[in-house]
Design brief:
Rossmann fold, globular, alpha/beta, 419 residues, 6-stranded mixed beta sheet, Dihydrodipicolinate Reductase, domain 2, 3 domains, single chain, 6-stranded parallel beta sheet, Alpha-Beta Plaits, binds L-homoserine
C-alpha cells in the first residue's frame, strides 16, 4: 500500500456523509477522498460538485484510487462494485452487512486470489469494534457464544414505544429521520439486519460460514400492548437478540428472536440506538461491549478505523476458520418461548416438547413452552399474518416441568390471570 490512500467512495447518504465529516476532522493518517459516486443526479449535495460522479467506472478503473469505500444500501449493486474492485486489485472497506453476509465465502476467496483486503467493521454493530475483537483478541479463546443487540432501529422502537409511550409508527419515523433505519425498515424490525450481522460475527467467532436463508429470524413488528404488559408485570424488558452459540459437539447455532431479559442481563439497560455484544468464552468468561449501533458518525468512525487499518496493510485472516474449516451449522435447537396466540387449534398443531403455562383471559392468550425453533419457523407467516408474538423466555421466572406434567399443566393452568 502506497503511503497515501486515495479513496473512491460509493454512496453519500447518512454513513457516507458521516465518514466525510469524521475524515475531515481526524488527524494522524493521510487519506483523501478523490471521488464520490452517487446515484441521484438531481439531489443537492452539501459539498463541492467536483467531488461527484455518476459513473462507477470513473472510480473503479482509476489507477490512482487504491481504496474503495462502499457505503450504498443496495446489496446487489454493492456486491457488483466490491467484486469488481477486488478483482482490479483494490482494497475495499464496506458497511453493507447484507452483501457481506450473502457472499462472505466468495469474498474471502477473492481476497486470497487477488491479494487484497476487504474490511467491514462498520457492517456489524456500528461503533463497537466487534469484528476485529473477535478476529484478533479472541483468536485463541475457546468461545461459547456471542449474543446481544445488533440492530439500533428495533432497539430504538422498543425503547420509545415501551417507555415513552410513542406509537410504533412515530418511533419508526424518528429512527428513519435520524438515519438509523434501513431503506426498507422491514429489515430492521423483522430481524434480517441483525441476522446478517450475526452471520458475519459467526465467521469470525467460530469459523462458521452460513447462508442467510438457513438462519431463522423473528422480529418485533407484531409486539402488542399485552406483551409489554406481561413483560412489565414481571420486571422484564423485551429486546431483539441474535444468538450465536457453540454446542458440545462443535456445531454452531445462529438465530434471531425477541427475548425477555431481566435486570441482571447486560442488555437490560441498552436503550435507543445503542447496541451491546456479550461474548462468552472458556477463559475470559463473560464480557460486554456497548456503543452506538447506528448513525452517520458512529458508523463513520468504524469505516475510518478500517481505512486506517488498511494503511498498515491489515487483513482479516479468518483465524477461527483456519483452525477448523469444518464447523457445522445447527438450527435444530430447542427454545423456551412465550407465544401470544388466538386460536387454540394453532397451539395444538405446534409440536411443543413441554408446556409450562397456558394463560387465557378475556384480553389475550399466551402459552409458555419449549419447542424446536424450526417448528416456530414453519408457522412464521401465520404468526405475522395473525399478529401473534413470540419471544424467548429464558429468563422469565418459571419453573420447568416435565413433559408429563406439561400435559397436566395444559389443562390446569388455563386460568384468568391478570397478566
Ligand atoms: N439499520 C441499522 C440499525 C443500521 O438500525 O442498526 C446500522 O447497521
Amino acid at each position: 500500500m502506497s503511503n497515501k490512500l486515495q479513496i473512491g467512495l460509493f454512496g453519500f447518504g447518512c454513513v457516507g456523509q458521516g465518514l466525510y465529516d469524521v475524515l475531515s476532522k481526524s488527524s494522524g493518517f493521510r487519506a483523501d477522498i478523490s471521488k464520490i459516486c452517487v446515484k441521484q443526479q438531481s439531489k443537492k449535495r452539501p459539498i463541492d460538485a467536483k467531488y461527484f460522479t455518476y459513473d462507477r467506472f470513473e472510480i473503479l478503473d482509476n489507477p490512482e484510487i487504491n481504496v474503495i469505500v462502499e457505503l450504498i444500501d443496495d446489496a446487489n449493486e454493492a456486491y457488483k462494485i466490491v467484486k469488481y474492485a477486488l478483482e482490479k486489485g483494490k482494497h475495499v472497506v464496506t458497511a453493507n452487512k447484507k452483501m457481506v453476509a450473502n457472499h462472505l465465502k466468495e469474498l474471502v476467496e477473492l481476497q486470497h486470489k487477488y491479494n487484497v483486503s476487504l474490511l467491514y467493521e462498520a457492517s456489524s454493530c456500528g461503533s463497537i469494534p466487534i469484528v476485529r475483537t473477535l478476529e484478533e483478541y479472541y483468536d485463541n479463546e475457546l468461545l461459547f457464544s456471542v449474543s446481544g443487540i445488533f440492530n439500533g432501529t428495533s432497539n430504538y422502537i422498543l425503547t420509545k414505544t415501551i417507555f415513552e409511550n410513542l406509537s410504533y409508527a412515530a418511533a419508526l419515523k424518528q429512527a428513519q429521520d435520524l438515519g438509523f433505519a434501513e431503506t426498507d425498515p422491514t429489515n430492521d424490525v423483522e430481524g434480517f439486519d441483525a441476522k446478517y450481522k450475526a452471520i458475519i460475527l459467526a465467521a469470525h467467532a467460530f469459523g462458521l460460514f452460513v447462508q442467510p436463508e438457513k438462519v431463522f429470524n423473528f422480529g418485533i413488528s407484531t409486539l402488542s400492548e399485552w406483551d409489554v404488559t406481561y413483560a412489565k408485570e414481571k420486571g422484564l424488558k423485551i429486546k431483539l437478540i441474535p444468538t450465536i452459540k457453540k454446542h458440545d459437539d462443535g456445531s454452531v447455532s445462529v438465530f434471531v428472536a425477541p427475548q425477555f431479559v431481566n435486570s441482571a442481563n447486560y442488555l437490560f439497560n441498552v436503550e435507543n440506538e445503542f447496541n451491546g455484544v456479550i461474548v462468552e468464552g472458556a477463559f475470559s468468561d463473560k464480557q460486554f461491549l456497548s456503543g452506538k449501533g447506528a448513525g452517520g458518525h458512529p458508523t463513520g468512525s468504524a469505516v475510518l478505523s478500517d481505512i486506517s487499518a488498511l494503511s498498515y496493510g491489515y487483513k482479516y485472516e479468518y483465524k477461527k476458520y483456519k483452525q477448523n474449516d469444518n464447523v457445522k451449522f445447527n438450527n435444530d435447537v430447542l427454545v423456551k418461548v412465550y407465544l401470544r396466540y388466538e386460536d387454540d387449534n394453532f397451539i395444538k398443531q405446534l409440536k411443543f416438547e413441554e408446556i409450562y403455562v397456558k394463560h387465557t383471559s378475556d384480553r389475550f392468550k399466551y402459552v409458555i413452552g419449549q419447542l424446536p425453533i424450526g417448528e416456530l419457523a414453519k408457522y412464521q407467516d401465520y404468526i405475522k399474518e395473525h399478529k401473534l408474538f413470540v419471544s424467548l423466555t429464558k429468563e422469565s421466572p418459571i419453573t420447568p416441568i416435565t413433559k408429563k406434567e406439561g400435559k397436566l399443566a395444559e389443562k390446569e393452568l388455563v386460568h384468568a390471570g391478570k397478566a
